[in-house]
Each structure stands twice: as C-alpha cells, then as structure tokens.
Design a protein that fits this description.
21% strand, 20% helix, Double Stranded RNA Binding Domain, alpha+beta
C-alpha cells in the first residue's frame, strides 16, 4: 500500500500518486522514466502533469465524471497558466456547470 503524505486525505490522491507542490523547476526538470507517468499538483486539486515515454509533458485536469480535460502542453502552457485554468474548471464544477470534454479547454485560450 503506498504511503500517504501527512495532511492529505486518501480520497484526494488519484491513482496512488502523492501530490507534490509543483514549481517551475520541478516541471522543467521532470524527465521520462521509460513509460508514461503523472505528477499531481498539491497546490491545485486535480491538476496533473503527465510525462510520456518520449518526454512530452501535458497538463490535465482530472474530473470524477469525464475522466480528464487536457489543458495544453508544457512549455507552451506554463505552470501558472495551468493552475489558473484548473482553478477556473474547479469553480465551474462547483457551480454545477458542464465541463468541456477532451482537449476542448486550453489554458492558452481566451474567454469570449
């Protein structure tokens, strides 16, 4: 059974990942581990950075119903923009608004 960091409730830990307070340095230096893996942000709930075997880094917002919503790829979408987009989605979810599906939501898109 994976260790859970103190202060984090088990239900907030997706797929056994221990949330990490992401910084620009951690995101920049994240390297491939031979397969796909994700780093979960401890600052913004449900924000993850997925690193593929080829080294592609993609931001995702995880949802309970729709699975995940792609926020964009690093470095085009920086940590601060991904966090802001995830907070916006969290607000929409809390208000009961429907979240976008798939890659429809982008942290770089501007509101109309």
């Amino acid at each position: 059974m994976p260790q859970i960091a103190t202060g984090f409730r088990k239900q907030n830990v997706p797929r056994g990942d221990i949330p990490t307070k992401l910084t620009d340095r951690i995101v920049k230096n994240a390297k491939t581990k031979g397969g796909r893996y994700a780093i979960t942000d401890a600052t913004v709930t449900r924000l993850t950075l997925e690193i593929t075997a080829t080294g592609t880094k993609t931001w995702y917002y995880r949802t309970k119903v729709r699975g995940r919503v792609q926020q964009g790829r690093y470095p085009t979408v920086m940590l601060s923009a991904a966090r802001q987009a995830a907070q916006n989605l969290t607000g929409k979810s809390a208000k009961g608004e429907q979240l976008p599906t798939g890659a429809a939501q982008s942290a770089t898109s501007t509101p109309h």
